[in-house]
Amino acid sequence: MIEMKREHIERYLQEALGGDVTFTGAGDIGSLDEQGIKDFGYGKPLLVRWEKDGVSGEGVISAMRGDKYGHQDYWDRARILLFQYETSARLSKHVRPLGAGYVNAEGRMIPLHEVREFFIVNEKLEGSDYFLELERIRKGELLGQDLELTRGFARWLAEIHGVKHDEVDRYDRRIRNLIGDCECIYGIIDGYPHPYSMFPPERFLALEKRLVDWRWKLKGYTHRLAEVHGDFHPWNVLVRRDEGAAFDFSVLDRSRGVWGEPADDVATMSMNYVLYGLLDGNTQLEGPFLDLYMAFWESYLEATGDREMLEVIAPFYVFRGLVVASPEWYPRLAPQVRTALLSLVEKVLEDERFDYADINRYLR
């Protein structure tokens, strides 16, 4: 519940409207009973009145109520309210927005003025992109430190995935977004050329239908909801060597929410070992990248004991497989590499349990 104080409303109006503004009252719609301020919260509008440069004005302050329909977190609700703020006045007969803002930790109402884009400022970390280490390994230089770093990734994921949550709706949402979101499977599919000769429409159609089966299968796994990163791949990892020549790492660009299915993070990083193992024209995973892939998987399973993951990971491999096979995202892949990746995308959905130890049978 958001509790507005008179001084916070008055200060917001002065900052948002500018000029000589005096707050004259607030309360429920149709009333100026200021006790209504105490009850203001998600889904309960608040009528406010003011005088600006001697002219009376009034408006309605509203906030959204959190719900299970994709509005669980404040950043979800911010997206909706900013859309309304930006677009409502463009539609004839629609109520005109007068301002937007947010409530900070002290309860102050902070206005937003003429919003066009948002940005974030992060701390600067030392290190180099992990994919550069993979490029080095491609040239034949696999070090013991590389394997240990990979095991470190697995242990770190095991640690964050150990934080569980029991809100069923969030797990359902994560699976729904995995399949249907613009950034995930259906969105990636729509980014492929249409029609695409290497994977014609009838194959995409069959793939999408199969994914619906998996969506309903995963409704039986909501107990797996855990803390996740959401986009754990080599371009979102910074690595650095310590004094003993071992690697340490930091991560960037957490995505798609705090809670999800741990298989998402495991599929994302392990799929990139598959990709790098195929980049030089191979059609199966072998050599150093097979070693990295197996070290990652075995270390994760040893740390978590989570073999149930093998029952749920397939659609996450579909997502990441479609990304790395995409002619838009990876236009220079050899045709046989793209064929192998698209084979994995189809075949992985046919097994009830993913056979991580025999990854090559999905690539053939």
From TrEMBL:
This is Aminoglycoside phosphotransferase. Keywords: Transferase. One of its GO terms (molecular function) is transferase activity. Residues 144-271 form the Aminoglycoside phosphotransferase domain. Transmembrane segments: none annotated. It comes from the Bacteria. Signal peptide: none annotated. The keyword Magnesium does not apply. InterPro entries: Aminoglycoside_PTrfase, Kinase-like_dom_sf. It comes from Desulfovibrio ferrophilus. The keyword Hydrolase does not apply.
